[in-house]
Amino acid sequence: MSGRCIMMCAGEYHPMEIDIRQDDFVVAVDGGLVHLLEAGIEPDLLLGDFDSLEDTGFTGNNDSGGKILSETIARYRAMGPDHFLQLPVAKDDTDTMAAVKLGLEKGYREFLIYGAMGGRTDHLMANIQTMVFVLHNGGRAWMLDRQTGMTVIGPGEFRLPADFEGTVSLFAMDGCLEHVTIRGLKYEVEDAEIRNDYPLGCSNETLASGSGAEAVISIGKGAGLLILTEGLKNRHH
């Protein structure tokens, strides 16, 4: 399938351009509906247990925003299960995981997830683990914010976007990333190990613009969290 599954979650969201193509599938995950409404984007599906809508400040029927929100939920509910899916509050899957599973069932293998980084740290960890789930099921998920992108990469080769300049960090999600080779960044390694108890892969950097070096990361075994921070350099801890 050529289209992508674009998901808007209920976490902190810094408005940014979202490139939605004709064959993309847009999911409002619970309170993420508010972010989409504010951006003027109509989702294809509204999904969630809707517990987080209470935290948006956009739910009261006495104000125009709350009225728009309640009317939108009612409209999607009336459209039926292809466009509205209410989940129980008590469940094993997070709302984000439920949306990812549905996207995978529909045949999507590329996921762009917004509103999934800021706010609660436990939700961030759950969303990172959800990206591991996508990788294990043959797909690739990105969590995106205005300056930062996160994805989970597995065995094989990953080439950084040619126009990206900034900080590159790689962390082991499994016990150990084996046979890691990094080329075209400030710090290069050959056939190295990156363990989950030592942050060796933190704060690498792209080279100066025009260097001609292509940044490539290859992993022989394991799943790694890759974090790209646009424009951030020379701030090592």
Give short descriptive properties of this protein.
four-stranded antiparallel beta sheet; Rossmann fold; alpha/beta; elongated; 22% helix; 2 domains; 14 strands; Jelly Rolls; ten-stranded mixed beta sheet; 4 helices; 237 residues
CATH top level of the largest domain is Alpha Beta
Q: Spans of 5+ residues with little confidence (pLDDT < 50)? A: 56-62
Strand content: 25-35%
How many domains make up the coordinates?
Answer: 2
H/E series, N to C? EEHEHEHEHEEEEEEEEE
Describe this protein's structure.
It is elongated and about 55 Å long. It folds into 2 domains: 5-146, Rossmann fold (3-Layer(aba) Sandwich), CATH 3.40.50.10240; 153-230, Thiamin pyrophosphokinase, thiamin-binding domain (Jelly Rolls). By secondary structure, it is α/β, with parallel strands linked by helices. Strand 10 (176-183) and strand 11 form a beta hairpin. The protein has helices spanning 32-39, 64-79, 95-105, 121-136, and strands at 5-8, 25-29, 45-48, 84-86, 110-114, 140-144, 148-153, 156-159, 166-172, 176-183, 189-195, 204-205, 216-219, 224-230.
